[in-house]
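Replying to the earlier thread about multi-chain prediction with a worked example.

Input:
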Amino acid sequence: MTAETTGGDLSRLRHLNALTAIRVLRADEAGFTLTELARRTGLSRASTEDVVRDLTERGWVAEAEKTAGGVGRPARRYRFRADAGHLLGVDIGRHRVLALLTDLDGKVLHSHRVEAAPGLGRIERLAATDDAVRGVLRAGALSGDRLWASGVATTGLVDGTGKVMLSEALHEWTGVDLAAHLGRLVTGPVLVENDSKLAALAESWQGVARHSRDVVFILSGVATGAGLIIDGKLHRGFGNAAGEIGALPAVGWTRAPEHLRDWPGEGDIFAAARDGDRRAVAAIKRYVKDLAVGVSALVLTLDPELVVVGGGFAGSADLLIGPLRAELDRWCIRTPEIRVSTLADRGVALGAVKLAADHVGTVLASGSGLTSIDQFARA
Amino acid sequence: MTAETTGGDLSRLRHLNALTAIRVLRADEAGFTLTELARRTGLSRASTEDVVRDLTERGWVAEAEKTAGGVGRPARRYRFRADAGHLLGVDIGRHRVLALLTDLDGKVLHSHRVEAAPGLGRIERLAATDDAVRGVLRAGALSGDRLWASGVATTGLVDGTGKVMLSEALHEWTGVDLAAHLGRLVTGPVLVENDSKLAALAESWQGVARHSRDVVFILSGVATGAGLIIDGKLHRGFGNAAGEIGALPAVGWTRAPEHLRDWPGEGDIFAAARDGDRRAVAAIKRYVKDLAVGVSALVLTLDPELVVVGGGFAGSADLLIGPLRAELDRWCIRTPEIRVSTLADRGVALGAVKLAADHVGTVLASGSGLTSIDQFARA
DNA sequence: TTCATTATGATGGAGACCATCATTAAAGGC
DNA sequence: GCCTTTAATGATGGTCTCCATCATAATGAA
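Result:
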């Protein structure tokens, strides 16, 4: 008896059917005919028409181009109006701030990148963040009050209200209230979350983990982190500290990147390794060995379908995956499939967008969410 | 846009409302008046009456005793007919087999215990299992074809079909097809799962983890294991091997119980420790130290609200919890609350019952589940 | 031009919910 | 013992949502 969905009156049924219709419509930008939609929602054609009329009146659905060429009377097509609203995703990284402006389906419309030195203080880094946000809004010719929701990614632990509780990687960063800060540039909800968690979310949304319900994501870069997707959802943990296996001293995640940073040779260690430099190969091996202990702990705990490797080092994944798999084989009962992220340095920011998108989704699913599209489009 | 619940036609709405009503009714054995029920389901009184009439006709609900003493016309009371069906839960342990016969709400009606030596072979252990099942059915004056569903707990990894894939703790146990074996004694679905996982399930059902969504359960006994409750549900993992952190050599879970077994003194080590025996205290300390490494890995991975300690050693938890908390404080970012199981040696078997109960719940939630109670009561 | 094909839109009907109100049944005061 | 108060019951009428069905409309092909 797991049913969370409590029934209700007839309007509730209509609401559920409208949500189903929207979910189907969002699957294809080109839209659907009523007949197709009826088949996919399981409703009758007549009811489907009713639902679509409703949603059109309320601004959620629009008529799309008819497709020519078929036999018989050409059908009208309807599509979800993903362009009706905008979402913002911001990744506040060590070296730069990246802001993405997307439509409601998370299609990136504009991006803006602002460099930031690793040693930057709180004020300067927040200023860089503002620049990135303003830049991307300018590119999209939007003002901040036209955003439906915004997501922000940062290193460190984040509390429920959007404050950074603890950050070791960035200077003077602990205690920053990012939700409040961003709230001065944009209206609408601002959601803040840890960067590794958001990168994981992005992978399960648009990345290589799209079709997997249980995923361990490893952020492999100058800092090491993890994010967990469990049963298709981001797992945060009771104190928002899930995936922090790196805190265990036996897991050498703090030490691991040093093998690559402090290697005895010159230039890019990965290039050197590809050229056959033995010391480079050995250093990478040490890195993977350290990394793999933590990954094994995560994998043994969760038994995921998939491990995804992302972060700055993922670009050199050809050198990492093989050794990593070998190490996992040593420790794990069942080594999961290992894949490399293809989202490049956008993964974290995309996860932030997804955070915003999920917030909108929650509002829609809740009671009065679909009443009118105007409730989101403020003044 | 997470909505899994797809709408449908009016009968679907009625079905959802009927499920809600049953969920409310199950919360109190004494039953509810229509007015109370209407308030809790959110339906109008009239519709509630309709739903209840339906459910009564189909056998799911019965009228209960009126409560005397109030002012005004005494209301009829209605209750869920938990007694309409029976569930079986079997725990095949190292030293004994325990079978529980319960009603649909998991209230234990009868239990039957059959001793089994640790060294028993496959045939003999299966025979003991049969004895336990037959015994508890006899006690309840039921034949095996009156069971709605059965759950079985065993050590080792279990595959999706009810076969034991790998068991190190029991002799000749790997490869046993428990679902098929039990299927000869009972009709209805037989569900098989790992014992640690089921003990965790039991805690989140009727135990100290009732109100927590994310729980790490530790089975502390002659063998060590873990079960995870994530977002209120049992987390199995892709290959059903979640929680097997003990497989990591750095985590001394195989070695841990030996500290207690091989301690240099005589008699019960816990009694000795309470009497102030230093060697006993030291051995327990070593045990907890080993245990805590694995628990820390689980806690850091999941950041649960709660850690529950169960299993054979839980009876001496007064000696374990303090040191365990101290060890976790050393490693974890945020040490969760730690509680001791109160389900004693029934926990695992109760989890097996819950497995069966959930299966019934799934059938009810699915489409035609509530049509008539007769679909479950065979022959 | 006519036919085959497919989408559209209107009609009538059934099921599920709700609000409202007259009726019924008990407890307690007179 | 009768009357009042309280609260549940059961019936009525209305609305909403969905469905099946059918006449109509629009297009390509013969």
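The mean pLDDT of chain B is 90.

Feel free to reuse this layout for your own posts.
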